[in-house]
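If you are new to this repository, start here. Below is one unmodified record pulled from the training split, so you can see the exact layout before writing a loader.
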Amino acid sequence: MSASERKNQRGAAMVEMALTLVIFLMLVFGIIEFALAYLSWHRTAEAVREGARHAIVSTPVTSLAGLSCPGGAAITTTCTAASCPGLFAVMRRVDPLLGNGPEQVAVTYACSGAGSPDRPVELVIPEVTVSVTGLRYTFVVPGIIGLGSNIELPAVTVTRTGEDLYSPPGE
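And here is the target side for that same chain:
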């Protein structure tokens, strides 16, 4: 093989390397982007779990006057950072971005039917459901090159049942 043929081969190897590197980097950045989207969804799921726990042990975020057990209709309220500041404070400790986007946070109180059979009917054991819908993730790399794109992440719903602290008289 002559010297000029070897120079041509080196140039071909460099072109192949450049093409392969571009494809490899696209694959790596794609994996990183979807990992960040999953992290965002997971962080929101953890925040919703914390919010449900907070809603079950603290003062309800809405009036429970219409909630009567058994057979009472569930009461649902849509929360914003202004209407449910305590709930959002707890949820934002886990997911600081929650409440800054188009997502909707709904809190539902319903009768659980759980607890002591001797418990008076007027002592309601609530079942609290906290859900977040409309959560969007904006990809970073396409945004850098001017192709702003985002996806809607799956809704997150968590249900917790309150505790029955009733003990029959004499026990």
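Two things worth knowing about this chain: Helices lie at 3-57, 85-94, 140-144. The two ends are 99 Å apart (CA to CA).
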